[in-house]
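so the lab meeting is tmrw and i was supposed to have these ready like two days ago... anyway. pasting both below. for each one the top line is the aa sequence and the line under it is the structure tokens. i havent really looked at them closely yet so no promises
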Amino acid sequence: MSKCAWVTLTTNDAYSLGAMVLAHSLKRVGTVHDLVVMITPTVSEAMRSRLREVFNLVQEVNVLDSKDATNLAILARPELGITFTKLHAWKLVQYEKCVFLDSDTLVIQNCDELMEREELSAAPEVCWPDCFNSGVFVYRPNEATFTSIIEFAAKNGSFDGGDQGILNSYFSQWAHTDITKHLPYTYNTAAFAVYSYLPAFKEFKNKIKILHFAGKVKPWLLNFNSETKQASIPPMFTHCGDFIQLWWNIFCDNVHQRLSDQMAGLAGALAQVRLGEPRSSEQEAYEASMRRQCWESGNIDYTGKDSFDNIWKKIQETLEMKPEAPAKSADDDNDKSSVTPPEIEIKATAQKLIASNVTTPKPARSTNKPTPQPPARQKSKKSK
């Protein structure tokens, strides 16, 4: 067993997809250190068996939740409360030094030199550089440290409701005490365009060592063409489209064949998809189900199947479908009133909407309203 390890965490089968791609990305760049994944009881047994084939150690841990709904609401990310569970990483005392990696990271180049850094080494949070991002950090496992952080959290809470807030408060000296603990940003580069300084991303792209898909958009939630094995790249990710495709290449080459329909959610659905083959009606149904999950997570293929033209075409096809005529009753025969069929009403409404959008817009109303005039005074009877 190596004295050092790469550690990640997964709390369900969908995030386990990311964990497995992460593990294979580490193997792809030739790491010499162990791979460890911490899992919670919500990971299915089918997924656990596959994780054991990839990682040197699969360690089940209990769920730690910050219970801090107020601060998590500020972030609009209530699911981050469970990220406190990553604090269990300090209990892996069989290792001398570890690097924690979120399961939505992707290792691009060998980073074994990180094991030479000291606790707590991390890269700056791009939104607030005096804080570090807790998606990648170097630490020393220690039971006493684990207990100390938990006690600190119970007493002081987390300023963002998640693990990043509590770790930045606990390791508050990181910002100003020892600059050697500031990792270069290339060890934890945010993929999402909103988080990135795009000119620098393009300039130093070849130096990126670890890419972090921080935020709600995850590679496994993006639209993917199983026949061509090509991912659909959202507009905000065009600058790192090749990295997204790399994630899917690793998935296709190393992960897909390990999936089972006994797995939960997206992982189970992906197990049914056949790669590199013409899509059957059954497979198209599976992909439609996955696309719906992408929609629900906010990842919409605006330039592909979910484009406006395709959506409008579907609406028109639906309007053209004539519902079956209901069986006539005696009352229907006696009713001589004229009733407009519902499909005609729908078409008429749609046509009105189209016409209202293509006609010349009316000029905007003036905001300068005329000053109301006081009513004319009536002459008094006593006036001359």
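ok protien two:
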Amino acid sequence: MISGGATDADSGRSRKVHGMRLESLGLDLIPKTDPIMSFGPDDLKDIVAPHNDGLLVTLTVVNYDVARIFVDIGSSVNILFKRTLDQMKVECFEFDPISMPLFGFTGHAVQTIGHIMLPLSLRTGPHRITKMTCFTVVDAPSSYNGILGRPALANFQAVSSTYHQKLKYRAGN
């Protein structure tokens, strides 16, 4: 789990304001037309259980298929590691050099080197969805190429299941 960074709901005050906004909306205003996303036995095809594996996905960032992206519903930011960004040779997107601390499960701070907005695509073909996504760039060793956190998951209205090793989202959102 990564915390910190420049997210809308990172400060205590912004979380409180967000909570008050949700309370004022009331539960009756939640649209009931959204499809139900569930995981069942069919989603376990090709999964060797029992397991406790993290959910790793391959997603398209810009026009590059980036493997080993860790889906972390606890992370307050989306992360691309500097070595991944360097390998992609992305030059036509604006990089905001902003340094701020991120904190991981060890409690130690890691300084970011900036933010970059990049098109992120889920899937290919007719169910492909592409949205501009803010990534925090970190120059740190990792066995992953990136981390997909709460901001992207919420933006894509995606739901993950580590048990089923699946990431589902609403097509056409």
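from a quick look at the 2nd one: The chain has one domain: 3-169. The domain at 3-169 is CATH 2.40.70.10 (Cathepsin D, subunit A; domain 1). will dig more after coffe
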